[in-house]
Amino acid sequence: QSGGGVFIASNDPGLIDDAGIYIKPNSQWTWIRVLNSHSLVSPNMFGARGNGIADDTRALSAAFLTAYDTVCQQGATYMTSDTVRIKNGTPNKKVINLNGATIKAKPGHLKPFFANQTSTPEAYDYLHGVEMFGGMLYGWVKRESVYHQVSAHNGFVAGDKSYFYHMTVRGFCDGMVLMGNSVAFDVNIDE
Predict the structure, then answer these.
(1) Fewer Cβ neighbours under 10 Å: the N or C end of the chain?
(2) Any idea what DSSP says for residue 123?
(3) Residue 57 host element (H or E)
(4) Residue 113 gets which letter from DSSP?
């Protein structure tokens, strides 16, 4: 899941290096990862470490924004310091198999955990057509006491036929909100 694969070379100047599918070692050439409609991508292909220390926000967003289904490295802990963008799964569903991995907010990360690809820092958009399963989402909560909340992670909102299952969601005071025919089952929520 991390690195490797088959690549072809292209001298198309319009290709942009995304550190995963398109790799531009110089200004004249771009390596293109050969993928087909059944291929899977991993955040590790885009430089994620999954070691619970390195900031994997950029790599997670890059993998989750592709048209391909995504599978995470089993047992990895991906750290985030900002909102992770996810491809709009309408009309073709975006599938993310966490594969036993954890996505965890770094201390102080209080922005929405996930947002649709069209979101901006000023206006966050709901997730649309996302299917995510098989892992743990861990927000960041800081409290002075049980009764006095100082700051809390904002969680995320899923709308338009999004599905979440076989997961644990922890540390989100605002939790996760489901709208527009979205479903969650077998989700353990520990605020």
Answers:
(1) C
(2) S
(3) helix 57-64
(4) S
Burial of 2: CB neighbours in 10 Å, binned 0-12, 13-18, 19+ = middle
Q: If we measure between CA atoms, which residue out of 75, 76, 73, 81 comes closest to residue 105?
A: 81
CA dist 14 to 19, 26, 62, 68, 125, Å? 15, 13, 18, 21, 29
State how far the Cα of 140 lies from the Cα of 184, in Å rounded to an integer: 21
- How far is the C-alpha of 134 from the C-alpha of 12, rounded, in Å? 38
The pLDDT, as a whole number, for residue 107 is: 83
Torsions phi, psi of 104, nearest 5? Answer: -125, 135
DSSP bridge partners of 114: 84
pLDDT digits (tens, 9 = 90+) for 135-154: 998 876 554 434 434 444 45
pLDDT in tens, 178-187: 777 888 888 8
Predicted model pTM: 0.84
Phi and psi at 139, nearest 5°, equal: -80, -175
